[in-house]
Amino acid sequence: MSAWDGVAGVAAAERLAEQLAAGQIAHAWLLTGPRGTGKRAVAFALAAALVCERGPGVACGECSGCARALRNRHPDVHHVEPEGVIIPVDVVREAVIPEAARSPFEASYKVFVIEDADRMNDAAQNALLKTLEEPQPDTVFVLVSDHEEEVLETITSRCRVVRLDPVPLERVSEVLVAAGADPDEARRAATLAEGDVARARLLAFDDAVRARVRTWRELPARLASPVDALDAAAEVVAE
């Protein structure tokens, strides 16, 4: 078992796992690529690897550190995301910079996962820049962005950039079958997930998600009359 299991099949994640296992820990990463390539899941797997109780980079997936990081419940893993449409400068100045200057609470590293980093306005990115230029040795930033071109070059130049691509359908199917999925169900989930391994896992194994998918698939056959359509719509809203 490993903290990377949830992103098995993602080539960039496999390279990251190798780097961390070899002790090649950057003070800042930028994970970029199209929406649906699993960047958020990779970011939290990376965070889990850094706070693993068996040592940074081990990513055992079994210790409390890994489990809490993957659920975004670890005191040394800080998740920053947009408030509305942006991440304002006040969030960076008040919630990120002071906390980044403190030592980790229990792990070897303190990790900041900044989701949609391109939605930090220029003032917020410039405020973060000094921290990236003079990083604490036990603080790591993981920036996640669908739009690398909207991240200031001064930020990008101080990060190790990792670009993620959609995982081929056949590879996603193989990962799901290896995890115990029926081959037909695996292919169906892989097709719907469009290269996102984490989403494919939900579609293949999460009973609630599978029930919603069945509801949508069965809708066309039920729409024989306006009354049927209204009944179906009410069920979808309730679901």
Characterise this structure.
The chain is 49% helix and 10% strand. It has eleven helices and five strands. A five-stranded parallel sheet has the order 2-3-4-1-5, sandwiched between helices.
SSE inventory with pairings:
Layout (H helix, E strand, L loop, with lengths): L10 H11 L6 E5 L6 H13 L12 H7 L6 E4 L8 H12 L9 E5 L7 H12 L5 E7 L7 H4 L3 E4 L5 H10 L4 H11 L3 H9 L1 H16 L3 H13 L1
- Give the ordered list of helices and strands: HEHHEHEHEHEHHHHH
How many DSSP H or I helices? 11
* Radius of gyration, in angstroms, nearest whole number: 20 Å
Low-confidence sequence ranges:
none
Give a short summary of the structure.
This protein is α/β, with parallel strands linked by helices and about 240 residues long.
